Amino acid sequence: MANASEAENVNTAMITADPVVLGVLAVVLGLIFLSENSSHTFWKKFYTFVPALLLCYFIPGLLNTFGVINGEASKLYSVARDYLLPLALVLLCLACDLSAILRLGPKAVILFLTGTVGVILGAPLALWIMGFFDPTLLDPDGANAVWRGMTTTAGSWIGGGANQAAMKEVYEVGPDVFGKFVAVDVIVANIWMAFLLFLAARSAKLDAMRGADTRALEDLRHRVEKVQLENARVTKTHDLIQILAIGLGATGLAHWLTGFIVPFIKENAPYLERYSLTANFFWVTVLATTFGLILSFTRAKKLEGAGASKIGSAAIYILVATIGMQMNLASIFSDPELFVLGLIWISFHGALMLLMAWWIKAPVFYMAVGSQANIGGAASAPVVASAFHPALAPVGVLLAVFGYALGTYGGWLCGQLLRLLVGA
Length: 424
What we know:
- The chain contains 19 helices and no strands.
- The longest helix has 32 residues, at 237-268.
- Mean pLDDT is 83; it is low at 1-10.
- Helix 16 packs antiparallel against helix 17.
- The two termini are 30 Å apart.
- It has a domain at 2-77 and 96-108 and 192-234 and 272-279 and 307-422.
- The protein is an all-alpha fold and 424 residues long.
């Protein structure tokens, strides 16, 4: 059935060939940045309120929604995730100052854990509220019970895809409700990411209004900018080849080592699967970040002056476009009550994050990246982090990796609370 549905979607899309879709996305990105840098009064006012990164995300989503392209059938996202994201992580880490990142302090971890608690407690709260309006949602019986489907989204929002799959097996989730909550996961998480990008564009004003301590963040930014200025030079073809050699070489090495690490763990320590340590993407992300941080202590750091982080940022923008093209806003109308449930759920998570950030006077960055490390994982946490500054991308990765370790436990605990609520 899934293959037939996918084939139908491909046939109904206006553009079906991935090379053409990639060209469309590239043109969209080009037009966005062209208009952002325009001196025209309209565009200057427009981008005062709407961040360019947000458009890079939403316009591909609209193209998917209206059938111009088909994000579900396209392989572009998997390519961007497996190749461009590790490349970006390596290049964005080149100018990184690890000691400065460590000096950011415990607030990022505090807010990350707050986000995890928000997901765990927000699920039963959202189901309880929606149960008043539609008691059938509280039906405890059957593999396709709503509460079972919610456990997979909890696993995804705390950890990632591996944790989501684990919850599907642990709670014996039926395929029908699983598919519905995959849609809820994608749409609601993407809407939330858009909100975080919106906040990122206004973080300086918000931090100033709240009296948040941003000294550690500013110190990190200044250190990176110093590296850029000290090594700045006219970029030559030689520099670009060196940058790509390091970025793609490290990406290839990460994939190659993952091919040995994952089978070794599965054979010799299968119990580590509960920590998502048998997920290929987990190791690719961790290794790429590690290689980038190691290279930041070598002469490779001088390539930052030739634009290494700029190439990494360009890769991130392409990744953002491929993430956005998976969003189909029309699916909200097929099971609206489940999407309302998801919005209540994410709103509780967000409210808890905002309250904690206000209480401990943490910068918006900590709240946004701590949240996205939960909800979006390693694929999008660096995107949100780099929206503040490219040097901060590794912070998003490190927190997202933490989420992989907690995802199965948090998803299981959330499932137990949901089970108690419905009396299963």
